[in-house]
Amino acid sequence: MDFREVKATRKGEVPLTLKQVDSIYWLGRYTERVLTTLKVFMDVYDSQLDSHFDYAKYCSDLDIYNGFSSLSDFCQRYAFDRTYASSIISSMNRSYDNAIMLRETIGSDSLSYIELALRRMEDAQYSQTPALVFQKVIDNIMAFKGQVFDSIADHNVRHILLAGLTLERLDMYLRLNMNEDKIAFECRRLTHSIERTDINCDRLALQKVCGELCEKSDFMDNADKMILLQLIDGLFMKIDMAA
């Protein structure tokens, strides 16, 4: 992503550097990726012996590499393989790495929930009941989100983080055909967040994405989805800085 510095627009706030803006945005995206993925994955993992889950289609829908030999191999490596860039634990690690860099920005209490979520994700690999431990990961992420929006006074930090969370959620919902009834709400929330920051965003692309999603979310074909996913991925790419 290509961001610009974000100026302080309210008394008591400080400007955000390019690195901070990037880290806040990706903290939101990776954290939401873990959360939404686990909500889908928990039932599959818990019942994999009886499941007819099509992991090849799942990988294709998410546009991630499928090098798995079986459903059980998928469940184990997709959850816990740190060498697999698209694994859940890899996303959790990236969330933690961004949170560490933002310790002074988000506060130690917010950081502690991300650290706890990572530790519980590591615990799940060796648990006899990993689905129960996955729920603890979800609980800690939800606590992190509550802590962030309750304790962070800087509106730019809150809304950039919310933009990352919401954008990832929209991306996952589209790819996995999830929660079509919530897409219009998520679009409004994304627009609300972006409009309240000085973040560098392609506003015309945002308008097109939200307009198309609100109008056609329940009967979109694959070609429509691919166009919208490309627009979503490009919302924060470099645009004319003079615009």
Write the layout of secondary structure elements.
Blueprint (H helix, E strand, L loop, with lengths): L17 H29 L8 H8 L8 H10 L7 H14 L1 H4 L1 H17 L5 H22 L3 H22 L6 H13 L7 H14 L5 H12 L10
User: Could you tell me the strand content as a percent range?
Assistant: under 5%
Please provide the count of β strands.
0
Q: Write the element-wise H/E pattern from the N-terminal end onward.
A: HHHHHHHHHHH
**Can you tell me the overall shape?**
globular
Specify the number of helices: 11
Main beta-sheet annotation: none
Helix content: 55-70%
| Rg, Å, rounded | 18 Å
- What distance separates the N and C termini? 18 Å
Structural class: mainly alpha
Summed over residues and divided by their number, the pLDDT gives a mean of 86
User: Spans with pLDDT under 50 lasting ≥5 residues?
Assistant: 238-243
